[in-house]
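Example for reference:
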Amino acid sequence: MRVHPFSIRGVEDADSLPPEDAATTLVLLFGDPDPDRAAPLVEAVRARYPDAHLLGCSTAGEIAGAEIRDGTLTGAVVSFERTRLASVMAPVADASDSFAAGRAIASALAAPDLRGALVLSEGLHVNGNELVRGLSSVLPPEVIVTGGLAGDGDRFERTWVLHEGRPASGAVAAVGLYGDAIQVGHGSRGGWDIFGPERRVTSSAGNVLYELDGRPALALYKEYLGDLAEGLPATALLFPLAVSADDSPEKQIVRTVLAVDEEAQSLTFAGDVPQGARAQLMRANFDRLVESASQAATLTRSATEDEGPTLSIAISCVGRRLILAERTEEELEAALESLPSNTTQVGFYSYGEISPFATGHCDLHNQTLTLTTLAERAG
């Protein structure tokens, strides 16, 4: 396997990309949220790799090694030697299409030798929970599914995913990795501190939370935030919710508040908050957020050998970037330092992260750093 990272700002920069075009080449592209600015760059890369598999999306910041860039087209050209690839796309015009899109993606990729799938989705008009449920309804738990939801900086207006080599809204795209040579590692960590009592979700509908322990969710949330409640929903980034089920209390999924409804006294989250689940508030600890990146990287290492080149695909939440601010690159440095020395890291800041919590089927995460590592065993 050969990995060539790149970051370009002009069409002419595509001429410097390596001549690795083949059906076993994967080109990852993470870029400018403005499709009009991104399209010429994408087209230049597509023209250079007509036979390769292209997978990409818009971002809330592109990751190149331990650096964050904005307004670029950043990614990697990955040439596999003994791994088969397959690409697929499904439309997702609105959230109601999400489960069907996940199921269609999984059905198209399913095969006995499928080892992993990289999935990138429209970031605004999708129900991420339903998307991963659709994927998991077809693929067995031993197939590692990771990816993320496209971003649009901090604007939340429009996102794109590559569809037939061009930036387009309303789509989910994926690439499957097949064969015994490919090694897929994954790790995800949040790094948030738990505080306050554990409560029960007594009324919710999808991603809208109405009551905790029979009390209005927004009123209770404001009690904990104190003076910070005046800044809602923006200040909610500092206080996400940890959600878990009775049968797996150790599996705490982070959920971020997107909106508040004063009349209904409800909170709308970036992922589902099931009725009957356990819930507990979390707060930011900057050192632990950075440390969690190192922990996520450590989790990936058992899946890959250290001899050959390794690609790390880092997908982190836009909320983490907004919270960490000038310290954001520290989490990328921490991840890279904990990976094998022969690792190339690329990725993006997202509106949602897709990865198994530990093992088994994938989950939708918020406010989490996820890493996917790819390497090939020696022939």
Observations:
- The mean pLDDT is 94.
- Residues 80 and 357 are 27 Å apart (CA to CA).
- The radius of gyration is 20 Å.
- Helices lie at 35-48, 98-109, 128-136, 217-225, 286-300, 318-324, 328-338.
